Amino acid sequence: MNVPFKVSCIAAIVSSVILVSPVSAADEKAGVIRTESGIDFTPGLNTGLKYDDNITSANENSEKFDSWAITVTPALQAELIDGQTTFTVDAALEYGDYFSSSDDNYLDGLLKAKADVDVNQSRRFGFDVAYIVGHEDRGSGIFEGTSGADQNEPNAYDITSVGGYYEYGAKTTPARIRGNAKYSSKEYSNFETITQYRNFNDTTLGATFYYDTQSVTSILFDFQNVGTVYDLVDPTGERDSTTNTARVGVEWQATAATEGSIKIGYQNKSFDNEDREDFNGLSWDAKVTWKPLSYSAFDFSTGRTSRDPNGEGDFIRGTSYAIKWHHEWSDLFTSSIGFQQVNDDYTGIDREDKSKVYQFGLNYYVTRWLTLNTGVDIFEVDSTDSQYVYDRNVYFIKAEMTL
Hints:
By secondary structure, this protein is an all-beta fold. Helices cover about 5% and strands about 65% of the residues. It has helices at about 10-15, 190-195, and strands spanning about 35, 40-50, 65-80, 85-100, 105-120, 125-135, 155-170, 175-190, 200-215, 215-230, 240-250, 260-270, 280-295, 295-305, 315-330, 335-345, 350-365, 370-385, 390-400. Strand 3 and strand 4 form a beta hairpin. The radius of gyration is 22 Å and the shape is globular. Residues about 1-10 and about 15-25 have low confidence and may be disordered.
């Protein structure tokens, strides 16, 4: 099984572009390079040192590899605001070097462009395109359960996506409707004798209707259709499918104590291959932030959905739960403690997984342009198949820098 909720290097790349600490909240754009053309550039650099005691997610019957590693993540964001139009471009790289296990070194990259346009009071639209060069750690993803024995390097992939939305309805009126569309593809670039059967593309079409009951609360009705097509037929049978999800929910912006969204509904996943079992059942997604104090916040989330497996099986019915506590002890120190759990029930094979992640972190805001953070991520993965059972601890210290 993949390391659940793992903070991927790509996510770290995006978050490293703009860093705003409590001590600079009033001057969050201090690191921006302003040009006469109107384009603002925000450079950033993250460096980290970590110790991973089970790099390949090896089970108890396999050899474990541990190593210190250094990561370097330069990033740049360019932003242009022209009237009611905002253009943003993000570019970044991340290099990871394992001192005792060079087979696990990687180089990832991201290039993303986004635009949001307000045509007038009642109409707005946006689009985004992205290209990602990423990786899966040895022993994860397609190679989960192998403990990395079949790999001499991480599994590399390219993701290309293009999407957009169109929204009609003034924000000052109760009703709005938004249509969305997105095309994305994922293609693996090594170990092709195995990975060629996992290259696929998704086409998403959807619509969401919003009805504002008051200034900060919206009732919504959402429908999404996702068509998944694989480049080649899997040896176990065709995996092409169509997933329809219909949900009703509520969203609310920050009030005195809470903000969040709750959506619940029905999901149907049907395969073109009649030998595979379809999914019909309850689906939900909820995220709520509770701030009992101005300097302390709790994030709660839960969800249930179906997804394709990395290996054998028809699909996975996944249910997730998470809680995280953020606390500002002073203007210089903050902490975070989190717990996340995913229960995966496989269909088509006899397998159930339970994955737990414990997260502890401390942040020290040295200056406006430098933040230090340290912590540990503890992974515990249990399964009815011992091949997928493992423990993994990652200890880290990072420096986040801007101008």
